[in-house]
Amino acid sequence: MLQFWKKDRQRSPQTSPNKLKNNCNLHNQIDQELSVYVGPLSRFKCEILSKQLCEAKSRLALNIEDVFHNKIALSYFSQFMEARGHVNIFNLLMDLENVPFKLDTPTLKKTGSLVGTPCKTHQSGNSDISDTAINDYSFMCTTKIYNQYLCDDATHKVRIPEELKLSIQIALNAMETSNCLAQLKDYTFHLIRREIWLDFLKSDWHCKYQIEVMTSGTMTLSDVLYYDPSYTAFFEFLEQEDYVNIIEFWSAATNFEKHYILKKDTADYSQIQNDAILIYDKYLSLQATYPLGISDKVRFEVEEGICGETETSPDCLRPAVILAETFLESNCLRPFLSSQQYLSLLSYVMSSSSRPNHSPASSVTEGSIDTRSVGDPDGLWRRRKHI
């Protein structure tokens, strides 16, 4: 049985239990010796909280799908592919990325044309594209790709499995090409992951990409939290600033939500509630072991999520997580990006690439970068090369 202690200035110290579902009692009680103004968030004022968590993705933790939506990454990856002799594979994937696979929701210009294509729209609506025009465009793209990369006398030959090549030939003969293009794209991504991607992540090009992101002045909280080395450096910084309870709560709450979302079909809701209560009791309640000092409003929202009329949801702690992220972004991110921990992280990234006849550990020693260098990625790279 859980007792949530709420602050109610209008009531006497007597408790007034409200029976809720899930065998959970909610009590309102005043504790004269207990103040909500305890904890790092107790004096944090934020008029409007976002309804969304920060994106669970860091630009420093790059994957192949990210490259084609990230101009900086695309620049360095293209240089790597050219240097390694993979130009044809890279150009094939670039061509495939420009093909409208989602034919039901194509991207439109204001004129009503498909971006990068000569397709026209129906006159019946500004956002409707003729199915025939789309199919014609898909057939045209597939024919071009097949002739340029896949056929026996292709000018820029890319080897693919014979069964995939045969299916594309059949699709071309039937003039129904959308599915085979998706299969070709999947195979090309698979090929890069299996034979190329790990080499890129170990290369100077990837290292230079990370340095440029880290010194661009555009680092976000997501970039920091969702890349293990930067998370570790941020944790050390927050520990130094006496904000470690915030990042520990954030980690516990986000891992809790992720764990039970992945188990949504087999989740035991009583276990979800019990685990949520453990985190609540440790960080959020008025009698928390490590109180964050969240507001009554946020605490009540969390309590309702844990012991409300419906079964406990994996996102029941989200209001407090959003508050913690807002605080970290507003009060901690900028100081961290000019801290010694961040400079040490930059040194770590600079020394992480694998180069022939070069020991990564010898490139830059931890903490050897000064703050004047952070805004000059080219200068940092030249320094790394000559150390």
From TrEMBL:
Residues 12-22 have a biased composition (Polar residues). SMART domains: RGS. Gene3D superfamilies: Regulator of G-protein Signalling 4, domain 2. Residues 1-22, 357-377 are annotated as: Disordered. Residues 63-210, 220-346 form the RGS domain. Residues 1-11 have a biased composition (Basic and acidic residues). This is RGS domain-containing protein.
